[in-house]
Amino acid sequence: MTWWTGRQSRKADGVEPLHGGKLYLDKQHPALWRALNGMGLKAKEAAEAAGLDRILIELLYVRISQLNGCAYCLNLHVGQALEHGETQQRIAVLPAWRDTEVFTPKERAALALAEAVTELAGADELERELAEARTGLSDDEFSAVNWLVITMNAFNRVSIVSRHPVRNNRRK
């Protein structure tokens, strides 16, 4: 069966996307969108209360959005990461973070957890990945990162399914 996924940037096997007339889930059910936004804010508050800084939070949002292929969220959170002081270098190497030494042990544990929860491997592998992430994070940090990942995955899915557009900001 051939079908269109939001993660593809072009036609899949010549099949046109189903969103000729876009249906933005956030506009169709604004109360649900507000509830998701509220959950996202609470997750961010919990992360900050656990001692996670805003740069790490934005890095997690960027990495999750990379894994899910959410262009809208990537555009938004790369900009926010840069605004909060993240470097272009670290954003550029984020997909290969395991092969660099530019991330702290806490950031590496949080990134590993974000990948594990986003990709949800088989039970044994997931258990190993979660245990590995636990070694670099306190209980509060571990829980807060999980909530950030859960909410960001939800935001990614809303944006992917809705086909939220990315506007071209290039100077003319």
TrEMBL record:
<dbReference type="Pfam" id="PF02627">
    <property type="entry name" value="CMD"/>
</dbReference>
<feature type="domain" description="Carboxymuconolactone decarboxylase-like">
    <location>
        <begin position="43"/>
        <end position="116"/>
    </location>
</feature>
<dbReference type="InterPro" id="IPR029032">
    <property type="entry name" value="AhpD-like"/>
</dbReference>
<protein>
    <submittedName>
        <fullName>Carboxymuconolactone decarboxylase family protein</fullName>
    </submittedName>
</protein>
<dbReference type="GO" id="GO:0051920">
    <property type="term" value="F:peroxiredoxin activity"/>
</dbReference>
<dbReference type="InterPro" id="IPR004675">
    <property type="entry name" value="AhpD_core"/>
</dbReference>
<dbReference type="InterPro" id="IPR003779">
    <property type="entry name" value="CMD-like"/>
</dbReference>
